[in-house]
Amino acid sequence: MNLKHGILLLSMIASCSALASSWKVSYQNDEMRGTSQKLAYATSDNLVNFEFPYNGGSRLGIMIASANTKLGEGEKPDSLPIIRAMLFIDKGQFQCNPYNDCHISVKFDKEEIQSFPMEEASAGRADAILVSDSDEFINNLKKHKMLIIEAEFYHAGNKQFKFNLEDFPGR
């Protein structure tokens, strides 16, 4: 499964999520190529309200993924290392494009605020962005219990979303 399929999967999951969820893990198997991919996602504990046409409350989603990998004899997809992270807003548009300083501000537990550079997930999509330094971001997800993410949204400015990381997979 490629990143576009991951974005589609997350958008379907996020649009069906009425409540904040704990981390969910799934596996995608490509029988034709003999590869597997591990995916995990969570949605924010809080809703943020945007103006029309995105009114009604929006949640931020975090999706992490392994690479598509050909598994060795006896190897299970659960053992695949997570290598990339992305964010998804179920209703809204990130203010992220090649012409501006695209970043998010994050606070893990009670630590100092950090800035993570972001990049477009794919041309023309404004509801998903990739964490440029996924390794550092994922390592922080593993070590902490709480996360606040602040991102900039089109015609809405900066908004904050909270996540409980206590059941993060791979601890």
UniProtKB/TrEMBL annotation:
PROSITE patterns: PROKAR_LIPOPROTEIN (PS51257)
Signal as UniProt keyword: yes
Endpoints of the signal sequence: 1-20
UniProt KW keywords: Signal
Protein origin, superkingdom: Bacteria
Protein name: Lipoprotein
